[in-house]
Write a structure and sequence with these properties.
9 strands, DNA ligase i, domain 1, 3 domains, 316 residues, 17% strand, 12 helices
């Protein structure tokens, strides 16, 4: 399409109301209007074909393989009708315009479906584990080598902190500017997952013999530890200045090379499993106590995030 052409401008300005249509803000609907005279009349892909291409797009997006993403998108575009592309767009941008939410679907399927999906980010696992409505999710399903959705920080009003904490004590921690990462360890096998469930084991090391981190931390764990799941922040540490680097310093902790003057350091602030015992429902205080018992920190490689107990807003 000519960049300054009428149809191109409709796509570029899809959020702008035109007065003659109710499609403002609906990119897929506007794309359908533009594409319906330009695409093949009937598509020739099966549902399996589409699923395979969408899986490939998700996988290659995690691996930042832009050429392969483009290849999958071009395959979908060349073999689908305008109407099919309308719904493909809605699936890819996760805005189906169906008049009901994801939460509604989960609540109809199973009362615990939303909770399990929030933890695992795995729709297939939700369907398999909760296909029977009579089955209850007695424990949050955090499991070894399966990515879960971590709890994220929220902005709070310091003036109201005492009321929000019910006038009880709370912990203060430094907010780190790195990459949220969970570490799953079972014996000599390690896996690393980002907050969105992407697997970065290849970068950080799936065994004590490989990666930018695992070889340096394998021996820090106590002898009676069989397995564990840790939650923390992956940081870049400068051993010369003995400081952490910030995200804005033009480096990517997930892709640092061996000859970099920086080194990978994992800063742990929570533990979710220890020797097959799930700890998500334990108090934060107890989880902190366990954390301090299971490994010995190494400066610049493996840290426990320091915290201070407080009870008033003046201490924040």
């Amino acid at each position: 399409l000519p960049k300054e052409g009428k149809d191109a401008m409709k796509l570029l300005n899809y959020r702008t109301p035109t007065g003659s249509s109710s499609d403002a803000g609906d990119f897929a609907a506007i794309a359908y209007f533009v594409l319906k005279s330009r695409c093949r009349k009937d598509g020739n892909l099966t549902i399996q074909d589409v699923n395979d291409q969408l899986d490939a797009i998700a996988s290659n997006n995690a691996g930042r393989k832009k050429e392969l993403i483009e290849k999958s998108l071009l395959h979908l575009i060349a073999n689908t009708s305008a109407l099919e592309q309308k719904w493909l767009i809605r699936m890819i941008i996760k805005d189906m315009k169906l008049g009901f939410s994801q939460q509604t679907v989960f609540s109809i399927f199973h009362r615990d479906a939303a909770e399990l999906h929030n933890v695992t980010t795995d729709l297939e696992k939700v369907c398999i584990q909760l296909h029977d409505p009579s089955v209850c999710l007695s424990d949050v399903s955090i499991s070894m080598f399966s990515a879960f959705k971590p709890m994220l920080a929220a902005i709070a009003n310091i003036q109201r902190i005492e009321k929000q904490m019910n006038n009880q004590s709370f912990y203060i921690e430094t907010k780190l500017d790195g990459e949220r990462m969970q570490l799953h360890k079972d014996g000599d096998v390690y896996k690393y997952f980002s907050r969105n469930g992407f697997d970065y084991t290849q970068q950080f090391g799936g065994s004590p013999l490989e990666g930018s981190l695992t070889p340096f931390i394998h021996n820090v764990f106590c002898k009676d530890l069989q397995n564990c799941i840790l939650d923390g922040e992956m940081m870049a540490y400068n051993p010369n200045t003995k400081t952490f680097m910030q995200k804005g310093n033009k480096f990517d902790i997930k892709r640092m090379v061996d000859d970099s003057e920086l080194q990978t350091c994992y800063c742990v602030f929570d533990i979710l499993m220890f020797n097959n015992q799930k700890l998500a429902h334990e108090t934060l205080r107890k989880r902190y106590d366990i954390l301090n018992e299971i490994f010995t920190p190494i400066t610049g490689r493996f840290h426990i995030v320091q915290r201070k107990e407080a009870i008033t807003k003046k201490e924040v």
